[in-house]
Amino acid sequence: MSVGSTELTKVRGRRLCRRRSGKLTFPRWYAIVLPAYLAALLAVDTQVGRNGQLALGALTFAVLAAALVPLAGLARAQAVGVVLFATVGEVTGSLVWGVYHYRLHNLPLFIPPAHGLVYLSGVALSRSLRDRDVVWAAAVAAAAWGIAGLTVLPRLDVAGALGVPLLLVFLWRSRWRTTYAGVFLVVAALELYGTSIGTWRWAHALPGLGIPDGNPPSGVASGYVWFDVMALLVAPWLVYVAGGTLNPKRWTRSSGDLLSSIRRREPIGTISASGASSRASVT
After folding, report:
1. Which of 88-102, 242-256, 268-282 has the lowest mean pLDDT?
2. Which long-range contacts does 235-242 make (Cβ < 8 Å, 24+ apart)?
3. What is the pLDDT of residues 25-73, one digit of tens each?
4. Helix axes 177-196 and 158-173, enclosed angle (nearest 10)
5. 246 has which bridge partners?
6. Where are the domains of the chain?
7. Nearest Cα to Cα of residue 17 among 273, 270, 274
8. Which of 205, 200, 202 is nearest to 215 (CA)?
9. Tens digits of residue pLDDT in 199-256
10. Which of 26, 20, 23 is nearest to 178 (CA)?
11. What distance in Å separates the CA atoms of residue 45 and residue 61, rounded to the nearest whole number?
């Protein structure tokens, strides 16, 4: 087969994949409206009890469902994956380990769907700015925050500083770096805001380890990187289970292991630095 024929076959394959899986597009206005909703949500939470939190939870699930409506199936699966993995992280970090705690020492019902909104906000933000600008903004902010936590901030933040290098590696090497950068900026703003109004508070030191921790810690966004990585990996399986056309086994072979993003491999349908959806395997 000639080189020209090979290239033509690849182009036709990419077009077929786009028709089958759909291009992952996110409304840019999500970058403004969803963070504004989250800020209002956290403010209202400071004024209600447990029953009020149940109502806020139901409302936030409804907002997330509405935000998912215009998205492609794979994008919806990614947001749902973030909610699932973030919920596991919340239960472990807050209720079990006690690294941080919410105002009423529970896990408010609105927190799991709020993670999905944070993810959508971050992706929309990354689409609204130039790739290089958003990545550099996140990298500089994370590094400066980490250094400040070790030098000038009122609370020593060793634990947070340990998480910053991981985030910087993903911002440097990952094909998903614009997504991680956008999510970091949203997370950083919400963490500073949420802790300042008392919605949640981080422990002075990691329980059982004694490592000093900030309020919030500078490396908190590194946890969100893992939520996003896992969600992007599991999303094709969710689409497959729901009756979609993606072949998760082919995708798994092509994407490699959990750290494939660091080696510049990109799973199907994820968001590349150029803002376009990547290749997809079809049955």
Report:
1. 268-282
2. 235/74, 235/77, 235/78, 235/80, 235/81, 235/267, 235/269, 236/74, 236/77, 236/267, 236/268, 236/269, 238/77, 238/80, 238/81, 239/73, 239/74, 239/77, 242/73, 242/77
3. 899 999 999 999 999 999 999 999 999 999 999 999 999 999 999 999 8
4. 150
5. 282
6. 3-263
7. 270
8. 202
9. 999 999 999 999 999 999 998 877 788 888 888 788 777 777 776 555 555 544 444 4
10. 26
11. 15
Structure tokens at 82: 């973030």
- Tokens 């209002």 label which residue? 40
For residue 60, give both structure tokens.
Answer: 């936030």
> What are the structure tokens assigned to 151, written together?
């030098």
